[in-house]
C-alpha cells in the first residue's frame, strides 16, 4: 500500500500489511454503507454505532437540533437550517498509556435525494466502474465514515494505542453543526482530523489546515414604475426608478471594496492561488423575460465573500453593508426605501500553522503511503475543520480523490477506490504516529 518504498518506522509496516490483507473487506464496507444510506440517515447512524461498538469503542448517540447549537462567531438565516432533531455517533477507544488523544470526525448525512434522472448508474448500488465506486453521497461524506471505521479496524488489528481515539460521525448538511454538539458535550482531544474526500479533486495531495471565512448575502433594491398605462415603458424611463440601475451600482461598488479589502487583509498562503478576499455575485433576479419593457419592482443580488482566517466576520459584514448604502445613497430616497441586506450565512475562518505538529504528522503519513508530499489547500472555504480549531483543538482534513459531487451540480458521484484504501492507510498511520503505541 505504501508507494515510498522504504520501511515505515514504529511498526507501521504492520498496518500496511493489515490493510492489504483486508482490502476487499474495506471496499465492501464502503459499498454496504452506500446501500444502507438508501434507507435513510437513521440507518446510517445505526450502521456506524454497530461498527464502532464491534471495535470495542464506548459508543454514545448524541441528539441535537441545529437551532439549539450555537457556533463560535457565526450566524445562519433560519431558512437555511434544518430544524429537525439529528443524531451523532461518538465512539471512544481508551488508550493504554500516556499518548496524545485524537478526535476523528466525518459526516454521515448527504444532500437530499433529487435529480436522479441525470444519473447513469443506480444511486445506491455502489457500482464500481474503471476504479471508481459510484453512489449518492459517497464523496460527501459516506467515504469519510467508512475511512474512520476501517482505519480504526486496521489500527486495532495491528496493536494497541497509548492515547485515546474519539471517533465521531455527525450531521453537517444544512448547518446541522453536529460536531459542535459533540464538542459541547465534553468530547475533546489533543488534535482532530476531518475525514472527507477532497473536493479539489487532488485527493491525498491536499491537506486542509486552513479554511477561509465565508459570508453569504442577499441584497434587494426597490424600484418605481413609470406613471403610465402604456405597455411599452421604455420612453418613460426618466420618470421611473429602475432597481436594476441601483443593483448595477452596488456591483461596481462591491468590486471596488473587494480590491480594497484584499489590500488591507493579505494572507500569503491564499495569495499563492488568488486574492485573500474574494467576492462573487452568483445570482441576479429582476422582472421577467416577457415583461422586459416594464420596470421591475425589485432586483435581488445574491452573493458571497470569502476572507482570511483571523478576520472577524463582523468586520466583513459592516464593510459590505456600508458599501451597499454608499452605492445607493443618491437614489434610494426616490423610492423612499433603502436597499435591504440579508445575511444568509456568516462563517468564520480558521487555521493552524503549516509547521504545527499535527500538520507535520498528517504530511508524514501521506508521504509514507503515497510517496508524495502533500500541499495545504488554502481555498476550501467554510470547512468543518473550523469547529475544532475555534474550540482550541488543532485540526487538519484530508481524503481520497472524488468527483461529480451532487452538491456542486454533478451526478454519478464517485470516489477513487485505490485512493480510498490509501486514505484508510494514511489515517491509520496518523493515529499511531499521533497517539503512540500502547504498552
What do these coordinates show?
The chain has 439 residues and is α+β, with helices and mostly antiparallel strands. The chain has two domains: 13-211 and 350-435, Zn peptidases (Aminopeptidase), CATH 3.40.630.10; 213-347, 2-Layer Sandwich (Alpha-Beta Plaits), CATH 3.30.70. It is 32% helix and 21% strand. It contains ten helices and 19 strands. The strands form five sheets. A six-stranded mixed beta sheet has the order 1-3-7-4-8-17, with helices on both faces. A five-stranded antiparallel beta sheet has the order 2-14-11-13-12, with helices on one face. Helix 2 (23-37) runs antiparallel to helix 4 and helix 6 (243-264) packs across helix 7. The radius of gyration is 25 Å and the shape is elongated.
Main sheet makeup = 6 strands, mixed
Helix content: 25-40%
Compute the average pLDDT.
Answer: 93
What class, by secondary structure content? alpha+beta
Radius of gyration, CA atoms, in whole angstroms: 25 Å
Largest sheet strand order: 1-3-7-4-8-17
Q: In CATH's first tier, which class of the largest domain applies? A: Alpha Beta
Q: How much strand?
A: 15-25%
CATH topology of the largest domain: Aminopeptidase
Distance between the termini: 26 Å
Low-confidence blocks of residues: 1-9
> How many structural domains can be distinguished in the coordinates?
2
Shape: elongated
Q: What is the CATH architecture assignment of the largest domain?
A: 3-Layer(aba) Sandwich
- The CATH superfamily name of the largest domain is Zn peptidases
Number of beta-strand segments: 19
Order of helices and strands: HHHEEEEEEHEHEEEEHEEHEEHEHEEEH
Amino acid at each position: 500500500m505504501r508507494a515510498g518504498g522504504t520501511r515505515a518506522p514504529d511498526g507501521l509496516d504492520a498496518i500496511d500489511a493489515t490493510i492489504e490483507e483486508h482490502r476487499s473487506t474495506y471496499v465492501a464496507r464502503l459499498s454496504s454503507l452506500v446501500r444502507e444510506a438508501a434507507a435513510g440517515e437513521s440507518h446510517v447512524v445505526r450502521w456506524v454505532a454497530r461498527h464502532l461498538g464491534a471495535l470495542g469503542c464506548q459508543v454514545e448517540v448524541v441528539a441535537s437540533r441545529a437551532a439549539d447549537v450555537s457556533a463560535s462567531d457565526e450566524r445562519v438565516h433560519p431558512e437555511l437550517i434544518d430544524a429537525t432533531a439529528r443524531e451523532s455517533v461518538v465512539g471512544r477507544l481508551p488508550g493504554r498509556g500516556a499518548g496524545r488523544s485524537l478526535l476523528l470526525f466525518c459526516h454521515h448525512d448527504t444532500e437530499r435525494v433529487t435529480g436522479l434522472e441525470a444519473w447513469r448508474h443506480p444511486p445506491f448500488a455502489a457500482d464500481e466502474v474503471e476504479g471508481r465506486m459510484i453512489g449518492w453521497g459517497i464523496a460527501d461524506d459516506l467515504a469519510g465514515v467508512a475511512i474512520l471505521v476501517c482505519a480504526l479496524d486496521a489500527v486495532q488489528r495491528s496493536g494497541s494505542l497509548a492515547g485515546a481515539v474519539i471517533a465521531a460521525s455527525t450531521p453537517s448538511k444544512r448547518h446541522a453543526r453536529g460536531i459542535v454538539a459533540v464538542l459541547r458535550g465534553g468530547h475533546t482531544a489533543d488534535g482532530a482530523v476531518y475525514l472527507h474526500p477532497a473536493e479539489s479533486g487532488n485527493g491525498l495531495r491536499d491537506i486542509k489546515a486552513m479554511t477561509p471565512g465565508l459570508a453569504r448575502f442577499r441584497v434587494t433594491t426597490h424600484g418605481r414604475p413609470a406613471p403610465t398605462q402604456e405597455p411599452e415603458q421604455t420612453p418613460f424611463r426618466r420618470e421611473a426608478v429602475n432597481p436594476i440601475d441601483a443593483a448595477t451600482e452596488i456591483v461596481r461598488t462591491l468590486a471596488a471594496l473587494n480590491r480594497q479589502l484584499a489590500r488591507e487583509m493579505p494572507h500569503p498562503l491564499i495569495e499563492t492561488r488568488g486574492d485573500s478576499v474574494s467576492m462573487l455575485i452568483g445570482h441576479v433576479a429582476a422582472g421577467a423575460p416577457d415583461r422586459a419593457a416594464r420596470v421591475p419592482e425589485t432586483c435581488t443580488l445574491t452573493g458571497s465573500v470569502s476572507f482570511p482566517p483571523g478576520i472577524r466576520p463582523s468586520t466583513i459584514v459592516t464593510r459590505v453593508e456600508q458599501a451597499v448604502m454608499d452605492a445607493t445613497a443618491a437614489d434610494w430616497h426616490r423610492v423612499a426605501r433603502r436597499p435591504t441586506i440579508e445575511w444568509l450565512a456568516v462563517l468564520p475562518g480558521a487555521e493552524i500553522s503549516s509547521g504545527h505538529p499535527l500538520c507535520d504528522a498528517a504530511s508524514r503519513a501521506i508521504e509514507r503511503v503515497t510517496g508524495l508530499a502533500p500541499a495545504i489547500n488554502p481555498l476550501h472555504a467554510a470547512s468543518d475543520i473550523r469547529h475544532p480549531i475555534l474550540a482550541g483543538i488543532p485540526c487538519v482534513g484530508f481524503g481520497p480523490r472524488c468527483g461529480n459531487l451532487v452538491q456542486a451540480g454533478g451526478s454519478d458521484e464517485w470516489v477513487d477506490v485505490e485512493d480510498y484504501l490509501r486514505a484508510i492507510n494514511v489515517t491509520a498511520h496518523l493515529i499511531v504516529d499521533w497517539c503512540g503505541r500502547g504498552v
